[in-house]
Task: inverse folding
């Protein structure tokens, strides 16, 4: 018997979330972001779930190849562009659009061997201060790219630092400030614009842009921990499910697990769940973190170990060995687990361990 743990990817939920994004986008086209193995959901499953997107955006060239092999014939945007000059050959072979964010990448295109033109997005740094050209440089970058026969300028992009704040004026670098810098960068340039991530798309009024780039929302998690995904009309795409593999009653005063973090106040039935941090469950989840056992939400009791967690079954008296358990999904929002563990849903999805079998449903 294989260990009972499994991640189920709900393709119907992915289609539903893309539709929700489509409504928010109000006419803007959608790059569905599928980097990091589609936030842990699998490139091939993302191609199925997001088949109605206008394009798919990612980072890794091998994942782009997988998307093509899975049958995706539409646009593919490489969000970090080229890592080395030879990536231009992959752009041509796989028909990829590449972000250009640095002088080094610009020189790679200027030195490219002759061949079919590669579509590029010019990325502007408007306050995130990771990637991109300064706004005052963008016109010159555009001019250098526009004269290359091996390049076609397809878009202008930027990325927000604080779009998860509901007040658009908030933060040391507000959304409004970034938008003003972007406007300055793009002045006089005639190319489609692409700005919004999930937070900008779902939490703010529509922006003047041609394309949006949501990721997390399409997987049914929230871009802002203060706004539950459900309240944004989103459905969880990933369910991490397993079973109880043991049940025991511990006496009052007995402790459970490493460090004896949970101490029973009274005789307590403890369920042992076949999932631990080696499966991607966060080790920092505190006692009380919700776990659904046979449809009832019960509290974690004791430290997460490598292959197991332990829960207090006081409210699930019928639970026994083999009872189904949901770590996250429709009953336990991934965002809630993440918040209690001091992280975000993004990290939990991406950290799903390779040893967990993944199946598509819906
Ligand atoms: C990851 C990423 C996105 C998607 O962000 P979400 O918060 O998941 O919606 C959009 N744009 C860029 C450049 C990204 O790297």
Result:
């Amino acid at each position: 018997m294989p260990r009972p743990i499994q991640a189920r990817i709900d393709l119907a939920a992915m289609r539903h979330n893309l539709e929700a994004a489509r409504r928010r986008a109000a006419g803007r086209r959608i790059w569905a972001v599928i980097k990091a193995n589609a936030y842990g959901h699998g490139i091939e499953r993302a191609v199925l779930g997001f088949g109605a997107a206008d394009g798919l955006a990612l980072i890794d060239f091998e994942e782009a190849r997988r998307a093509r092999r899975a049958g995706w014939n539409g646009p593919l945007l490489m969000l970090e562009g080229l890592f080395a000059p030879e990536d231009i050959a992959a752009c041509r072979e796989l028909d990829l659009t590449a972000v250009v964010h640095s002088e080094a990448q610009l020189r790679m295109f200027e030195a490219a061997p002759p061949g079919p033109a590669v579509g590029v997005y010019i990325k502007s740094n408007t306050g995130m201060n990771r990637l991109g050209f300064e706004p005052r440089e963008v016109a010159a970058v555009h001019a250098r790219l526009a004269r290359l026969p091996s390049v076609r300028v397809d878009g202008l992009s930027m990325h927000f630092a604080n779009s998860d704040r509901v007040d658009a004026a908030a933060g040391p670098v507000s959304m409004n400030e970034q938008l003003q810098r972007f406007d300055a960068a793009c002045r006089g340039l005639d190319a489609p614009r692409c700005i919004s991530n999930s937070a900008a798309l779902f939490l703010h009024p529509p922006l003047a842009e041609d394309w949006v780039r949501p990721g997390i929302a399409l997987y049914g998690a929230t871009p802002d921990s203060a706004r539950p995904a459900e309240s944004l009309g989103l459905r969880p795409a990933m369910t991490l499910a397993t079973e109880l593999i043991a049940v025991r009653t511990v006496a009052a005063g007995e402790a459970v697990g490493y460090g004896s973090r949970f101490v029973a106040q009274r005789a307590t039935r403890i369920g042992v769940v076949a999932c631990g941090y080696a499966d991607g469950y966060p080790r920092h989840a505190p006692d009380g973190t919700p776990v659904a056992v046979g449809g009832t939400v019960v509290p974690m009791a004791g430290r997460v170990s490598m292959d197991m967690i332990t829960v207090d079954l006081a409210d699930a008296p019928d639970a026994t060995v083999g009872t189904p358990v949901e770590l996250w999904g429709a009953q336990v929002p991934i965002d809630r687990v993440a918040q209690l563990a001091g992280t975000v849903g993004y990290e939990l999805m991406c950290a799903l361990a390779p040893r967990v079998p993944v199946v598509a449903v819906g």
Remarks:
- The pocket of pyridoxal-5'-phosphate is lined by residues 33, 35, 79, 159, 197-199, 213-216, 223 (CB under 6 Å).
- The first helix runs from residue 11 to 25.
- The chain has a mean pLDDT of 97.
